[in-house]
Specification:
three-stranded antiparallel β-sheet; Ubiquitin-like (UB roll); alpha+beta; five-stranded mixed β-sheet; binds FE2/S2 (inorganic) cluster; binds iron/sulfur cluster
């Protein structure tokens, strides 16, 4: 293990050189917003919410390792505006019905929208026609809310270590598919894990809901990122 020193928006930080910027920032009390990233799962850098600048270049903080002397810029007006726009695009591109969503209050996209004070997206709503898939005994897949972050593909395995989610179709019809074979005997715990891993309400564990009332859920109680910004 070797430690390196770097700065984020001028704040001096120190971290193991093996760490990615997102984790290293967190260790040093700095919040870098993320969406497709999840602790313990290999990062893919697909949502771009964590974009930072180093020198003249832009980088995704979830896939960039720290290095000695890095001068990282994260909370500039330009980058914050970029993140707000990305969140607006995601909201306008899908059908996000927050008031009827079991993930409301635990949803990272909703929490980020609150953080960035997104009320009405500045892009036109696309109102795509998407399905709600309810054939699986333990999982309900709502394609309206899926942001294609691949966390479920990357992070969920059945008892034999096989993947149960994969992309199906292409282009604008691309969607997450539940494999009927590898998912057929999944436990309730794994179904719950898939739901918890999904940053939005696209993956719902069936026959279990509203244990915690809306208003008392994670981001109802503490805005996203606030644990590092108190
Ligand atoms: S179902 Fe959830 S975790 Fe899977 S790709 Fe869609 S948004 Fe991401
Ligand atoms: S969190 Fe880094 S690209 Fe999505």
């Amino acid at each position: 293990m070797a430690f390196v020193k770097f700065t984020i928006d001028g704040k001096e930080c120190i971290s193991d050189e093996e760490n990615y910027l997102v984790e290293a920032a967190r260790e040093n009390g700095v919040y870098i917003p993320t969406l497709c990233n999840y602790p313990g799962i290999r990062p893919r850098g697909s949502c771009r919410i964590c974009t930072v600048t180093i020198g003249a270049g832009t980088f995704t903080a979830c896939t960039t390792r720290v290095a000695e002397g890095l001068e990282v810029r994260c909370a500039t007006e330009e980058l914050e505006d970029f993140r707000r726009k990305m969140i607006e695009i995601l909201l306008a591109e899908g059908n996000h019905f927050c008031p009827t969503c079991e993930k409301s209050g635990n949803c990272e996209l909703q929490a980020l929208a609150y953080r960035y004070r997104v009320t009405v997206p500045s892009f036109p709503y696309m109102f795509p026609k998407r399905e709600v898939e309810a054939w699986h005994p333990k999982l309900l897949k709502d394609h309206n809310r899926c942001i294609l972050c691949k966390r479920c593909i990357r992070g969920i395995r059945n008892a034999e270590g096989k993947v149960i989610f994969a992309f199906a179709k292409r282009g604008e019809r691309i969607a997450i598919n539940i494999d009927p074979e590898t998912s057929k005997d999944i436990s309730d715990d794994l179904a719950q894990e898939a739901m918890d891993l999904c940053p939005v309400g696209a993956m719902i564990h069936k026959r279990k809901g509203f244990d915690t009332p809306i208003g008392r859920r994670r981001y109802d109680r503490e805005p996203i990122g606030s644990e590092l910004e108190a």
